């Protein structure tokens, strides 16, 4: 058996002031009895904290768009 390396498509967003960041990873799709909904894992980081920190939240595509709004810019997209 061989080990197959896989990468995760992820995005990291930072606010325009450089104070906060959000890491976004796809979590798959779920059917809500009417349609398939894309879900995302998000980790919100406060750069003012002196130690590692983060707030986790599972959101759908609509919530993600609201979360990012126009305040965040994408930094990179592959882990």
Structural commentary:
It is a single chain. A hairpin with an 8-residue loop joins strand 3 (36-46) and strand 4. The mean pLDDT is 85. This protein has one helix at 61-68; strands at 11-15, 20-31, 36-46, 55-60, 72-76. Strands 4-3-2-1-5 form a 5-stranded antiparallel beta sheet, covered by helices on one side. It is mostly beta strands and 79 residues long.
In short:
The chain is 10% helix and 49% strand. By secondary structure, the protein is mainly beta. The protein has a 5-stranded antiparallel beta sheet with strand order 4-3-2-1-5, covered by helices on one side.
For the biggest β-sheet, the strand order reads 4-3-2-1-5
Which ranges are low-confidence, i.e. pLDDT below 50, for 5 or more consecutive residues?
Answer: none
Element order, helices and strands?
A: EEEEHE
Put simply, the count of helices is 1
* Largest beta-sheet details: 5 strands, antiparallel
The proportion of residues forming helix, as a percent range, comes to 10-25%
pLDDT averaged residue by residue:
85
Number of DSSP strands?
5
Through-space gap between termini: 24 Å
What structural category characterises the helix and strand content?
mainly beta
Q: Which band does the percent of strand residues land in? A: over 45%
Computed Rg:
15 Å
General form: globular
